[in-house]
Design goal:
Layout (H helix, E strand, L loop, with lengths): L2 H9 L9 H17 L10 H9 L4 E7 L3 E6 L9 H7 L10 E4 L3 H15 L5 E5 L4 H31 L13 E3 L16 H15 L2 H4 L8 E5 L6 H12 L3 E5 L10 H14 L4 E6 L2 H4 L12 H15 L7 E7 L7 H4 L6 E4 L5 H12 L10 H6 L6 H17 L7 H13 L10 H19 L7 E5 L9 E4 L9 H22 L7 H16 L29 H28 L1 H14 L1 E3 H8 L6
Parallel strand pairs: 1-4, 6-9, 6-10, 7-8, 8-9
Antiparallel strand pairs: 1-2, 2-3, 5-7, 11-12, 11-13
Helix pairs in contact: 2-6, 7-9, 10-12, 14-16, 16-17, 18-19, 18-22, 19-20, 19-21, 20-21
Length: 637
């Protein structure tokens, strides 16, 4: 659009909106006027017994007026001042002398009222009181009840017209269901996160940095005929930095950045998701070059079902179809690059993953020790640290931790140091923070009987001793019988970081998990519920050995692992009932063999187990050096 036309549009005054204030004033004024005009004087209400005993029997009633067959108004005789009866005035002395009506009471039926009045008059020996019947119409309220719905309808339509006019001028959220809810970082604005704040993702940063370079210097690539990928998909476990990496791209690229979650496309209204996809790409194409970031894309990108039996979400499928069309349809999206992140890449639709849509897949893994050290250094920059804090030691103490876990550890360490009234965060604060993140907060106030404490000590001693004398078991780092979270005791291990797990390592891990129950059976001759977590872990691991990794002697070289995730949505198993029986039998055999191995180790080193349990009951927490002092050198060959 030319500049002069744009100025002309900006200088045009907005359309004057209808002012509804005068309608509200008229409506309220009419209501007040009708209320004042039709207001009746306040008349005291009495019951039938009071009317009969205090007024009718004493001859004080002049006449009765029945209004609308529901309400009876009582008119009293005007007493003379010198002959006024004291007992009557004692009850109604507050009633002023007037022409009436003076009192009223309600009746349910005119016939019943007439019979009661006649019986009361005969009993008192009085003449029949004069009774009149009349009908009163409150025409003001009838008119008001007729005008009220009409006025509300008019006000509602005026409200809608006003909102629609506001929507035309772009300053209202009414009727904007089909518009995208993406948060926009305009060109020239700087994100607070850059690549300097992203540590431990060097390969991923190198791959995604090409995107930033292309946006900053596209001629370098275009002269060679290269095309930038239309879509980049970030895959990885939770907490590995997918969203953080996208924020860094927003801070480095210097182009309009549209960010939203996959769930923001879905609403209760049919067709809203597809409309929001169209609106999102329309706005992005209007500001090219630009980047669209969709977090948790599995919300709308889940694989479409091939059958109609469990096909429930047509709205989600239509949203996905529109996204596929925008990514690589007949239209061109030159200059619009889509970033997406998910930790469930196995359930995404294949059409979304093909070249031409998400051309590049960047897999983010849990950081190794070197990467964890770099992540610790990033999160420790704003912290006040003591000189004894060793970043390398902390990185070695946290195998399997994600970047989000490490950030949480640094924050927990600062909170613990502040709680302890320290000026600097020390090494022990970080170690306590690691323990809290792994096992939860210590619960020293939990009441545990001496017998339970002894059983927990032998249980944990069984775990530690079993792993200590197994070659391929993970080395123990610390053991404690202080309750943490849901567990009554716990042992910390430092697993070696490798990508392949052998059959011997699997089996030794099973023996370690069952060592606690084996110790209870040996030293107490009775097992307890204390091993529920260990049994759950051992059972799942044994089934994985048989069904997924083919580490069974009976079902050799077979795997029923489903990398696509489709079998989880199906009612059919990939094996027969006979094979299922073999799987159960083989799992039980593996568990029994591991349990027997654990009992054999603990029986052989029975005295050391007793010494370790006694030291645990005394000190509650033992480090690796103290464990080594009791059990001797660990078996490594």
């Amino acid at each position: 659009m030319p500049l002069d036309q744009n100025k002309t549009q900006k200088s045009t005054p907005p359309a004057r909106r209808p002012h509804l204030g005068w309608l509200y004033i008229i409506f309220f004024g009419t209501f007040v006027w009708l209320w004042l005009f039709n207001r009746q004087p306040a008349i005291p209400e009495i019951s039938w017994n009071e009317f009969e005993q205090e007024l009718l029997v004493k001859g004080q009633v002049e006449r009765l007026d029945v209004i609308n067959n529901q309400r009876v108004e009582v008119y009293l005789k005007m007493p003379e001042e010198e002959s006024a009866e004291e007992d009557t005035q004692s009850l109604f002395e507050s009633q002023p002398a007037s022409s009436g009506p003076h009192y009223f009471f309600n009746i349910g039926s005119v016939e019943v009222f007439h019979d009661q009045l006649e019986n009361a008059s005969e009993t008192a020996g009085l003449q029949q009181v004069n009774v009149t019947y009349s009908t009163q119409e409150n025409w003001g309220w009838e008119i008001f009840s007729w005008l009220l719905p009409l006025a509300l309808i008019i006000l509602f339509w005026l409200f809608l017209i006003r909102r629609m006019s506001s929507r035309m001028s772009g300053d209202s959220s009414m009727l904007k269901f089909g518009q995208t809810k993406a948060r926009v970082l305009e060109q020239g604005e700087q994100s607070q996160v850059t690549f300097k704040d992203v540590a431990g993702l060097e390969e991923a940063k190198e791959e995604i940095f090409e995107l930033v370079n292309f946006l900053k210097a596209p001629d370098k690539y275009q002269k060679l005929g290269a095309k930038i990928p239309k879509g980049i998909l970030l895959l990885g476990p939770p907490g590995t930095g997918k969203t953080l990496l996208a924020k860094a791209v927003a801070g480095e690229a210097g182009v309009p950045f549209f960010s939203l979650s996959g769930s923001e496309f879905i609403e209760m209204f049919v067709g809203v998701g597809a409309a929001r996809v169209r609106d999102l790409f329309k706005k992005a194409k209007a500001q090219t070059p630009s980047i669209i970031f969709i977090d948790e894309i599995d919300t709308i990108g889940r694989a479409r079902s091939g059958t109609s039996v469990f096909h429930e979400s047509d709205e989600r499928d239509s949203t996905l179809n529109q996204l596929l069309a925008e990514l690589d349809g007949f239209g061109t999206n030159t200059g619009v690059i889509v970033l997406a992140a998910t930790n469930r890449g196995d359930i995404l639709d294949p059409a979304l993953l093909r070249p031409g849509r998400f051309d590049r897949h960047i897999q983010l893994e849990l950081p190794n020790q070197t990467e964890r050290k770099a992540i610790f250094e990033v999160h420790m920059k704003p912290l006040a640290l003591d000189a004894d804090v060793d970043v390398g030691m902390l990185a070695a103490q946290t195998p399997g931790f994600s970047g989000a876990d490490i950030a949480n550890i640094c924050n927990e360490a600062a909170l613990i140091a502040a709680h302890r009234q320290k000026e600097l965060i020390q090494k022990q604060d970080f170690l306590d923070a690691i323990d809290r993140v792994i096992g939860g907060m210590e619960k020293r106030s939990k009441i545990i009987s001496p017998e339970e404490k002894k059983r927990i000590a032998f249980h944990e001693a069984g775990h530690v001793t079993t792993s200590w004398f197994l070659k391929h078991a993970q080395p123990v780092h610390k053991v404690s019988i202080i309750p943490r979270g849901k567990s009554l005791g716990s042992a910390w291990y430092l697993p070696e970081e490798h990508q392949i797990v052998t059959k011997s390592e699997f089996f030794d891990a099973l023996c370690t998990a069952l060592g606690g129950r084996a110790a209870e059976e040996i030293f107490f001759e009775e097992i307890s519920s204390n091993a529920v977590d260990d049994l759950e872990k051992a059972t799942k691991q044994a089934y994985s050995m048989v069904m997924n990794y083919g580490l069974s002697d009976v079902l050799r070289n077979l795997s029923f692992y489903d990398s696509t995730g489709k079998l989880r949505q199906s009612l059919h198993k990939p094996y027969s009932e006979k094979t299922a029986e073999k799987i159960d039998e083989e799992v039980q055999a593996i568990i029994d063999k591991a349990f027997a191995t654990s009992k054999e180790i603990l029986t052989t080193h029975r005295e050391r187990v007793e010494n370790l349990a006694a030291r645990l009951m005394e000190k509650e927490t033992l480090q690796k050096e103290e464990i080594k002092e009791i059990l001797g050198e660990r078996v490594t060959a």
